[in-house]
Amino acid sequence: MKNVKRFTLIALVAGFLVSCSSVKVISDYDTKTDFGTYQTYAFYKTGIDKAQISDLDKKRILKAIEAEMTSRGFAKSQNPDVLISIFTKERERVDVYNNNFGWGWGWGGFYNPWVWGPGWGWGWGGGFGNNVSTRTEGSLYIDVIDAHKKELVWQGRGVGTLNNTSNIEKKEARIRDFVSNILKEYPPTPAVASN
After folding, report:
1. Do 87 and 138 meet the contact criterion of CB atoms below 8 Å apart?
2. Which candidate, 104, 111, 63, places its Cα nearest to that of 84?
3. Are 75 and 112 in contact (CB under 8 A)?
4. Among 4, 2, 9, 6, which Cα is nearest to 99's?
5. Inter-axis angle of helices 55-71 and 168-183, to 10 degrees?
6. What is the CB neighbour count within 10 angstroms for residue 56?
7. Which of 27, 42, 75, 136 could form a disulfide with 185 if both were Cys (CB 3.0 to 4.6 A apart)?
8. What does the pLDDT look like over 34-80, one tens digit per residue?
């Protein structure tokens, strides 16, 4: 009985930790854009200033974007091909887990003529009860704007749980994870049309 409860608790915790660490990414782009012509970038200060996060987190995000772009062969420039902007959204998410399962036993409360006195029984019964948890789920948008046309040509969005932690290293690692996962989709690879 203890092993079943222990295994169930471990499975729930592992599932919760995996769901918290992943970043879901969605991207969209202008299919008429030739992304192969873009080689340089700069940050779009006007858009970045509107992002509703702390200046320290903005710096962390921009540093992570810069590292990703550099690793992909893009160069920062005063006369860029594209401008990169960010914005964020967050919401509180409430999760309710109903864990009414497990083994139980108790007084049956029935009379059995073949056994002296009231009967005792065993079987499935109540378990751990309901668990409620809240967490902050955030979205980070990264926009790529054609610097000459002043048009949005690509947008990536990462959605995941933000670590509300005072540990700076964990916070920076989470931000790098968000940015890296989003920018895996850039530049887009157009789908090949089948005949």
Report:
1. no
2. 63
3. no
4. 9
5. 50
6. 11
7. 27
8. 999 999 999 999 999 998 888 999 999 999 999 999 999 999 999 99
